[in-house]
Amino acid sequence: MKRQLPLMIVLVLGIAFTVQFFIPSRASEVTYQTALQWWLVMSSFAMVLALGSLVNHHVLKIKRRKEHWAFSWVTLAGLLVMGALGIMGGPSVGLRWANAAYNQLFLFVQAPMDSAMFAILAFYMASASYRAFRARSKEATVLLIAGFVVMLGIIPFGAMLWRRIPDISEWIMMVPNMASKRGILLGIGLGSTATALKIILGIERSWLGGSGK
Amino acid sequence: MFSHDIWVWIAAVLTLAIFSFLYKENPFYRFAEYLFVGMSAGYGLARVWNNALVPNFINPFWAALTAERGATGPLLADPRFWLIVPALLGLLYICRFIPSLSHLILVPIAIGLGLGSGMGLAAIIQTDIIKQMQSAIGDASNVAAGGWPLVWGIVSLVGVLTTLSYFFFSREHKGALKYSANIGIWFLMVGFGASFGNTVMGRVSLLIGRVQFLLTDWIHVIR
User: Fold this and answer.
1) Given a cut of 70, is residue A158 above it in pLDDT?
2) Could you give the ipTM of this predicted complex?
3) Stretch B97-111: mean pLDDT, rounded?
4) Per DSSP, which regions of chain B are E strands?
5) Spatial distance between the Cα atoms of A51 and A49, rounded to a whole number of angstroms
6) Do A114 and A126 have their domain in common?
7) Chain A CA closest to residue B6
8) B-contacting residues of A 48-87, CB under 8 Å?
9) 3-state secondary structure string, B6-44?
10) Residue A208: DSSP 8-state
11) Are A74 and A84 within one domain?
12) Residues in Cβ contact with A114 at an 8 Å cutoff, skipping those fewer than 6 apart
């Protein structure tokens, strides 16, 4: 029963909301909107699970004095301060000083760290492209040439080198790039459809945990 | 010369702490990394609370509880009251932390999967399959456009079909399928190259943004 009930829920809801898509009536639309709101409310509580796991991981790390345990206090403090200020400054509590502090923390702590984290990837990408170029295969060369032309096409320096570079860059984006992206999207679509059907019909059971049996 | 704003200093020091990873892993980077994880989680919590729970559950549920019953009918007939059901189902996620009840977490997961699969199935077929195929065939058969647009439309359709053939694993890649899959690889490589170029430029512009912040807002070298 522990496994049959969830499988039944998936089957019934999956079939009901697949059929709902093809029923153009007011009742069908209301059912869809209600289910969407219920789903949003229910899935919001999954945040508790995520935060519980994060807190659990760091509390255990501190308790067991694992390597770099002292930094776990920083994570827990960041979570507590940002979470508390965000909630207190939000529309439900509405403390203006908390909202101001939350905004300052977002603008001068969260956003700069976010940008800096992604910015350092530029260096690792440069090193990855160097390694790809050393592979000396035809495919790697095509990849790098396409990437290089697209990069030159974006910046004014590309047009300074040769005025046709932006046009070639646009052609790469609109023809071969679009074709491969469409092929990938179609593959994703077909794969997602097959997976959704497998989940609804109970063929795919890995989400049940363990062996799924 | 340097900024007198404490917040600018905090942002600058944290930016430099993260950039210090380019030399090697060090305690300054680790501090910034752990802080980033904690603050991102806190930010996520605040967003879920303010943008999902408050407008979709807490406010309507509270309004249902405090409404004057004469005007809106009995409490059980108020649809806003029944929002307690998904909230209680959502609370079952917490059962994950109680070993004897941990199997109950499968209920909200099953509801999410059932709704997601059911609502997504037709939408995926419509957007990812039919619309994409329509556009690919439309570009390749747009005779009215003529000339190069028509040629590129046909090239694009060939690209779509050969890319798809590369992902066709039900048959061994031999004969015509092998040639088709090989052409598909070339299209894929150009596509990956274009994505690579765009991503690098995005990251470089972020880097320029951070360096500009350090030179302009922090040490005022650039005005």
Assistant:
1) yes
2) 0.87
3) 91
4) none
5) 6
6) no
7) A108
8) 48-52, 54, 56, 68, 71-72, 74-87
9) HHHHHHHHHHHHHHHHHCCCCHHHHHHHHHHHHHHHHHH
10) G
11) yes
12) B36, B40
Structure tokens at B203: 């990251």
- Return the sign of the alpha-carbon dihedral for residues B57, B61, B63, B66: negative
How would you label B21-48 residue by residue, b for 16+ Cβ within 10 Å and e otherwise? beeeeeebbbbbbbbbbbbbbbbbbbeb
Task: Report the domain count for chain B.
Answer: 1
Q: Is residue A92 part of a domain?
A: yes
- The verdict on A106 and A129 lying in the same domain is no
Domain, as residue range, for A90 = 52-119
In a domain, A193, yes or no: no
Provide CB contacts within 8 A for B209, sequence distance 6+: A115, A119
**pLDDT tens-digit map of B186-205:** 999 999 999 999 999 999 99
In a domain, B29, yes or no: no
- Find out whether B111 and B89 touch, Cβ atoms under 8 Å: yes
Question: Chain A neighbours among B 93-132 (CB < 8 Å)?
Answer: 93-94, 96-97, 103, 105-125, 127-129, 132
% of chain B with per-residue pLDDT over 70:
99
Q: What share of chain A is helix, strand, coil (3-state, %, to 5)?
A: 80, 0, 20
Q: Of A54-63, A64-73, A90-99, A132-141, give the lowest mean pLDDT range.
A: A132-141
